[in-house]
Amino acid sequence: MKQYVTADLHFGHANIIKYCKRPFKSLAEMNRTIITNFNTILKDDDMIYHIGDWCFRNSPGGKKGEGSQNKALTYLKKLKGFWVLLKGNHDRNNSLKTKMISCVVEFAHVKMWLTHRPQDANPDYEINLVGHVHGAWKIQRLTKNSIMYNVGVDVHNFKPITLDQVITDVNRFKREEKNGKKRTNKQEGSSDSKKRDKPQKK
């Protein structure tokens, strides 16, 4: 069994294609592609955490493109794996029954805070897994000791990612961050040295 995370599937939401410039020609193509991508990767006994914004559901005569009439369970039945569904800001009227807005998952001796919106991230945890921002960014600092990682499908090729991959990406981010600071310090030191070594005009 593997553990996966994802967010912002937005099943049934045609307008998300233009809002986020998703590479699909129709809602049917988007729904079908996401389900196929996930079922190609997931096995029946895998666990997957979905961190908000599962689907859009519209009533007859509702605003065009802002949801189909399918219930949340319609999509869940088509997917492999055991799903843990957290509530997102668009999961209020789509028949998703979850009341959970955040949770803590421990993996590889690291405790991670899971919540939909980055503004609800918890600085007491080294890693915060979030969604909501779609393609705006993939990983960034919350505080000196805390990182936010966007698990949304828009930055992960519309596929789920393993918690192993999260740990790998976070460690790479910290290394690059450290190396970037080293390069900056070396450049500043070199510049200062040149200034000091430059002969003074008399």
Care to describe what's here?
The protein has 202 residues and is of the alpha/beta class. The protein has a single domain (3-197), classed as Purple Acid Phosphatase, chain A, domain 2 (4-Layer Sandwich), CATH 3.60.21. The chain is 29% helix and 21% strand. The protein is built from four helices and nine strands; from the N terminus they run βααβαβββββββα. The protein has helices at 16-19, 27-41, 72-76, 163-197, and strands spanning 3-6, 47-51, 82-86, 102-107, 110-115, 127-130, 139-143, 146-150, 161-162. Strands 4-5-6-8-7 form a five-stranded mixed beta sheet, covered by helices on one side. Strands 3-2-1-9 form a four-stranded mixed beta sheet. Strand 4 (102-107) and strand 5 (110-115) form a beta hairpin. It is globular. Residues 191-197 have low confidence and may be disordered.
Describe the protein's topology.
Blueprint: E1 3-6, H1 16-19, H2 27-41, E2 47-51, H3 72-76, E3 82-86, E4 102-107, E5 110-115, E6 127-130, E7 139-143, E8 146-150, E9 161-162, H4 163-197
Parallel strand pairs: 1-2, 2-3, 5-6, 6-8
Antiparallel strand pairs: 1-9, 4-5, 7-8
